[in-house]
Amino acid sequence: MAEAAIRPAALDRARVLQWMQTYGVYAGVAVLLVVNIAVTPHFLSAENFRTQAVQVAPVIIVALGMALAIGTEGIDLSVGAVMALAASVTALYLGYGLVPALLTVAVFAAVVGLANGALVAWVGVQPIVATLALMVGGRGIALVLLPQLKDLHNPALASLGSGDVLGIPYLIVIAAALALLVAFVVRRTTFGRQLLAIGDNRAAAKLAGLPVRRVLMLVYVACALLAAVAGVLATARLQASDPTSLGNLMELSAITAVVVGGTPLSGGRVNIAGTVAGAVLIQLLTATLIKHDLPPSWTQIAQAIVIVLAVYAARGRGKR
Length: 320
Prior knowledge:
A hairpin with a 2-residue loop joins strand 2 (164-165) and strand 3. This protein has helices at residues 2-39, 46-71, 79-93, 98-123, 127-145, 155-162, 170-188, 190-200, 202-207, 212-238, 250-260, 272-291, 296-313; strands at residues 150-151, 164-165, 168-169, 240-241.
């Protein structure tokens, strides 16, 4: 009799956890929207939605790369440093024109990604350790290149940061296009299937003859390039290069968005739609607290609670 009573309770709990894993992030976004519509003045204004979308765009872009790394059962803590490095390189090479500056940024980012990938794939260093080294060293290089904030006055860069197409800011268009591209790569390409297979079981992937090292290298290069794109866009929006603060704690925001969005830290699965929703959830949560004059410390506490809930809901999701 007791066992019969326990089974329904266990099933109900399993259903709740499964629902949280699948739809929790979307429900969280919906709840925050309803709450803000009810209690936040001028929340429904077009200007507010534009501001929120522009602010979350860099987080989405970084989180896309983080999702790829986590999908391989890895992680990349250097994304914030890459953003700072992109800001410094942009400021240094912008005098040669926007395109040469962007190409130089891409080269620097690719080098960081190759370094991360080599440490993980060839040397066998744990991803958290390998990318932690680049997290510290990358920001140090950024500060050596540009020790202090520098205002930028370039019409092309200004257009990238504040321009729009059909009323939609370039930042939003770029973030949406990259999200669609990454989703296509994960779901529809051989590379995406190999990435998920490696995250699911790296040893089995090697035995199956998959190019594990090459895929890991490409994943960390892609993660660094996406972080560099976010760094350039953030710099363009601010019209200033500030390697001291740009990208600070971005790795934590990106990891939060990915985990809350339904991608397990154990790898083998990547949820791009959930990652985007996770970034939106964090942005709405932060904006809600700020608009109601709560100190930044409350934002950090709220994000910590969201992370704990997401990790709790993810228990068992990554078990193989």
